[in-house]
Amino acid sequence: MNMANQGAVRALLVDDEAPMRDWLRSRLAQVWPELEIAGEAGNGIAAIEQAQALHPDVVFLDIRMPGKNGIEAAAQLAAMAQVVFVTAYNEYAIAAFERGAMDYLLKPVDAERLAQTCERLKERIAEKRRAAAAAAAPAKAAPQEADALPVATDVQSMLTQLIQQQMQQGQKRDYLRWVQASVGTSLRMISTKEILFFKSDEKYTLVQTEQAQYLIRKSLKELEDELDPDEFWRIHRSSLVRVSAISEVTRDFRGRQLVSIKGSSEKLEVSRNHTHLFQQM
User: Fold this and answer.
1) What pLDDT is stored for residue 148 in this prediction?
2) Is residue 96 predicted with pLDDT exceeding 50?
3) Rounded distance, CA 63 to CA 44, Å?
4) Three-class DSSP category at 274
């Protein structure tokens, strides 16, 4: 393995949100101070390129990313390193991750859970290095290649099962529970239960809670696909509202339906395509 310090364990952090990578780097420094962060990537394509160049021992990998997503990238990354998914979604067949070939972490990452994952990673990487050292002897050169294949094949097989299970059990999916918003140099994890509504704001989406407003890069279309449709309604091309936050629906002098939100002075317009949501008006 091409690394300056043969004893160091190297990691690659992959997430399309830079604040999330910074936050994970900080948490890893607390639970695994010896871990060397070899590099970062913001999408699956860059992650594969970085892994080929940096030869990390472990890749902490987000799932929902532009370009090549985490599931797609992991099919290649798993042959090069231990893969740990770090995601806000648990519909990716958690039981498959727990077979031992990889692990998963749900955002926001719990420090104790992260520490457990790091301990398992240390054990697996140590075992892999011992096996590689033993296989370095000429007599064991051939078994080294034979031993490496089943591990990668098993991981790729599990990834295929994950994708199939997602397609077959889409109706049982777990919906988005947390939204990430950058606040200065920190990352704010906002529970969807706190959110009153989302509103499109040019290149960004405004997230409104009772206490504050935040801007995120995720589009309303993405949010609509990821949020529970029983909890959040699309009432306009530029707004998504939490149903339980609606206090009343009125009409203005032009006949437009306007939604009043608990804990907010703002009124949101209901477009003609969504007036069926309030048919009794």
Assistant:
1) 40
2) no
3) 9
4) helix
Length of the chain: 281
Ordered structural domains, the chain, with CATH = 10-172 (3.40.50.2300), 183-278 (2.40.50.1020)
**How does DSSP assign 100-150, residue by residue?**
TT-EEEESSPPHHHHHHHHHHHHHHHHHHHHHHHHHTSGGGHHHHHHHHHH
Query: Does position 245 have pLDDT exceeding 90, yes or no?
Result: yes
Tokens of 10: 């190297």
Q: What is the pLDDT of residues 42-88, one digit of tens each?
A: 999 999 999 999 999 999 998 888 778 888 888 888 889 999 988 77
Angle between helices 70-77 and 141-168 (to 10 degrees): 160
Contact 78, 155 (CB under 8 A): yes
Rounded to two decimals, the pTM is: 0.54
Whose tokens are 């892999």? That residue is 128
